[in-house]
Write a structure and sequence with these properties.
- With about 80 residues, this protein is an alpha+beta fold.
- The protein is built from 3 helices and 3 strands.
- Strands 1-2-3 form a 3-stranded mixed β-sheet.
- Strand 2 and strand 3 form a beta hairpin.
- The longest helix has 9 residues.
């Protein structure tokens, strides 16, 4: 793991990003104190949609009762 100062990172950012893309990790320090780390991003894994075992009941699609509609519309 390479350690570079902030000023170096600012002037050589493209080269540092190329190194990170090759799998290297870069630590950026301010003085003698490490403040950040550049690491390669992991590719997001594809997820299957519908991963929750739930089905919407048929009653969900039925019209709401008049009292419920009035409450939603603010007329109660």
């Amino acid at each position: 793991m390479d350690v570079v100062k902030v000023q170096y990172a600012k002037t050589h950012l493209s080269a540092l990003l190329n190194a990170v893309e090759r799998g290297e990790e870069i630590v950026i320090s301010r003085g003698d104190r490490a403040v950040a780390r550049l690491v390669p991003l992991k590719e997001a894994e594809e997820r299957e949609l519908g991963f929750v075992a739930y089905q919407v009941p048929e009653s969900f699609f039925e019209p709401l009762p008049e009292e419920e509609l009035a409450a939603w519309e603010g007329s109660v």
